[in-house]
Amino acid sequence: MIDEPWRRRREFGRFDWYFCAIILALSAIGVLTIYSVTAEKAGTQFPLYLKQAIWIGVGALAFLTMSRIDYHTLARWSFPLYGFALLLLVIVLFGGKASHGAQRWIALGSLAFQPAEFVKIPLLLVLAVYYSTQNRRGWWYRVIVPALITVPGFSLILKQPDLGSSLSFLSIYVTLLLVVGVKSKTLGVVLLSALMMFPFAWSELWGSLHDYQKERILSFVNPDYDPAGRGYQGMQSRIAVGSGQLVGRGFHSGTQTQFKFLPEGHTDFIFAVLAEEWGFLGGVLFISLFLALLLMGLDIAAKAKDSLGALLAIGLVGMLTFNMAVNVGMTIGLAPIVGIPLPLLSYGGSATIMTMAGLGLLFSVKRARLKLSP
Questions:
Q1: CA distance 110 to 101
Q2: What are the residues whose beta carbons fall under 8 Å from the beta carbon of 271, sequence distance 6 or more?
Q3: For residues 170 and 154, is the Cβ–Cβ distance under 8 A?
Q4: Nearest 5°: phi and psi at 182?
């Protein structure tokens, strides 16, 4: 008869391989796609695909570090970490680096990082600790208090302005709120209050957006709105996805991409590049790999040894699901263009490192369940 601890370690090792292999496969697809988009315009600059490979390496270190830390230790530091992250967001507003009409980065010499990405994990830790420490009953403790915790970060990110990151940030709160459960009566009160406040909240939100963000939303509502202006990106993205057909045009052979009709092909619209070059089958393969990663995360959440671990796992899975769904949705015209990167694929140091660190935290929850020493 097989020894139980030995069997569990064997299963863990097998999961370790598949989990890491999927992350590596998605990251490799991202680097290859970025290479296809940017290789010819690199010139004398350091190529973006090599930069992304470096960010993935740094992210791998973040993954290993987070996976070796007991998440209970991180939870004890959750409020100081969240406070420090909010301080960084305040620094961005007053002394951040501006680019393309937005002030989102803190410069450190020749490098710059985006605090809006790194505040997500501290928020997840804070809300998971809040919901797991005691039984939160009533709409005030389940809905309002966590919302008050979330609002400062959401507002500071929206002020940059960064609508995409602010919605991704908000998705953590919504995910955990749905998981802990809201009674139908409480949910009715919340929805009614939201409907009553919507005109005032929308007026405030709409007023905080830049003109280009407003026009992106208008182009989503009406796809024919300004096809040569703000509707151009969405239109070219849909053309690229459609031109890929079943098997695609081949690596480095997409007309919309290589002739530079599609802007931001290495960041927000990387899925359109992938779909044009590898077609419907390539897009299905990517989504299947990503869904496999999410299902592993859900399995970790379901089998976590305590409520804190379960909430951390499900919160992270919810955020990644939201980011993937909105990015792919805006690429094919099912969601407005809000500037959310595709996890593990889109170019970007801060987003890549944050995603890898979050996956490391997910792995930490798995390790704790199996009671393996760090």
A1: 20
A2: 241, 283, 286, 327, 328, 331, 342, 345
A3: yes
A4: -130, 125
